[in-house]
């Protein structure tokens, strides 16, 4: 509690820019691996299949086993502090609550609506399936404070049941979605949209800086960009579907050679809630062959650590600009000679015939990313 409040107090307000420190923790997968438990691979694209059934809002949460960057918010009056994943791949806010008494809930901070004078409840429920279990909850409304930005009457999902073991070791208390309202379960208004409608931002922009090499120093900024966190200029590209932060990709190169995989165009979802770079499943075999990676019994691809410097640079062409990923960006070391490729397959159906990628943290650690709701565009600049 004291740690979370301290983080909120340390938020810097300057020229309308609100900076929220993000902390890097071990992911659920890493913690469980240390305990000798290996989670099976799950397609991150399952997250992008919202549905409605049985009168409940229905959202996927499958890929959060690998997420590592979280930040602090408060909910209620007086404020109750929580550490949440700020997720550009979803639109709802939810946290653990006193209505839930499973082991997963009992190991985390719980929101107590009875202790908030500004809380109002609803009867609408939601359901979030994930790996080994699922999460159930109900919606309510309360005051939410994000880095000093106070949002009134914000929809908040409160967990009522979290069966399974995955979330027992999770380092976050909930998720704050930053995508478009079109994909918000239950038709609820996302946090960013309430910030805009309540005129709480100087400009309707937020931006992420994700630190490299396991270091701290990651930052989420609202209301503008932080010029200390990137080099050179920001290159903009339009959002192609106002659902997720989806953009077009015109080319994909391996060591400067065009593959032709995006000759008719590709799409990519820019997603801070996905830790890897995901490639269309039909390309993965050829890509891993170019990298020289071998698949482990758990579905991961690995390479000999002594060969990392010899691996190819992967480059995306977006709105005519090249964005290279050196091997240091997509390879991480686990153990003395065990280097894992941070690229996984996804089986999203082609969008208008264009294969789909996901730019997760592997890409976003290399490039400062800016999300502009006024102009519906995404900007990338080389991360400082």
Reconstruct the topology from this structure.
Layout: H1 2-9, E1 13-14, E2 17-24, H2 28-34, E3 51-53, E4 56-58, E5 69-75, E6 80-87, E7 93-95, H3 103-106, E8 120-130, E9 133-146, E10 149-161, E11 174-177, H4 191-197, E12 205-209, E13 218-222, E14 230-242, E15 245-249, E16 251-254, E17 257-258, E18 266-270, E19 277-280, H5 281-291, E20 294-295, E21 301-303, E22 314-318, E23 321-325, H6 327-330, E24 331-333, E25 339-341, E26 343-346, E27 356-359, H7 361-364, E28 367-372, E29 377-383
Parallel strand pairs: 4-8, 6-11, 7-10, 18-27, 19-26
Antiparallel strand pairs: 1-2, 2-5, 2-13, 3-4, 5-6, 5-9, 7-11, 8-9, 9-10, 12-13, 12-28, 14-15, 14-29, 15-18, 16-17, 16-22, 19-27, 20-21, 21-25, 22-23, 24-25, 28-29
Which terms would index this structure?
mainly beta; 384 residues; 42% strand; four-stranded antiparallel beta sheet; globular
Give a short overview.
With 384 residues, this protein is mainly beta. The protein is 12% helix and 42% strand.
Can you describe what's shown?
The protein is mainly β and 384 residues long. Helices cover 12% and strands 42% of the residues. The chain has helices at residues 2-9, 28-34, 103-106, 191-197, 281-291, 327-330, 361-364, and strands at residues 13-14, 17-24, 51-53, 56-58, 69-75, 80-87, 93-95, 120-130, 133-146, 149-161, 174-177, 205-209, 218-222, 230-242, 245-249, 251-254, 257-258, 266-270, 277-280, 294-295, 301-303, 314-318, 321-325, 331-333, 339-341, 343-346, 356-359, 367-372, 377-383. Strands 5-6-11-7-10-9 form a 6-stranded mixed barrel. Strand 5 and strand 6 (80-87) form a beta hairpin. The chain is globular, with a radius of gyration of 20 Å. The protein starts with a helix and ends with a strand. The model is unreliable at 1-14 and 50-66 (pLDDT under 50).
